[in-house]
Amino acid sequence: xxxxxxxxxxxxxxxxxxxxxxxxxxxxxxxxxxxxxxxxxxxxxxxxxxxxxxxxxxxxxxxxxxxxxxxxxxxxxxxxxxxxxxxxxxxxxxxxxxxxxxxxxxxxxxxxxxxxxxxxxxxxxxxxxxxxxxxxxxxxxxxx
Length: 144
Prior knowledge:
The chain is α+β, with helices and mostly antiparallel strands.
């Protein structure tokens, strides 16, 4: 694997973690949303990751080294299919005939922990890219 493909792998990890963080923030922002345009309460969303081929601008020059190098990508975004939480609030505008309101099944503490994990993973990818950048700089210094 070339150093340039290592940069592409790190970049794909950063993009995937950014997408995951965006979904987690959306979940937290909608933790109390009882009405959506689709009808019913907001549904929690999760990112599903998969391995992906990385694209490198130097792929043609380093085709032999690129074999086997894989990054990560968001394969799909899945919505929570569990029944929503029901709270007895008879005066709420979204209450049903029995006085219950459907709320999203979101645990803010769990999503905050997941958000911290996504942040740390993003930082790890930044550190890996910085290490590769330093290796490239040192290689160029040796060739001078």
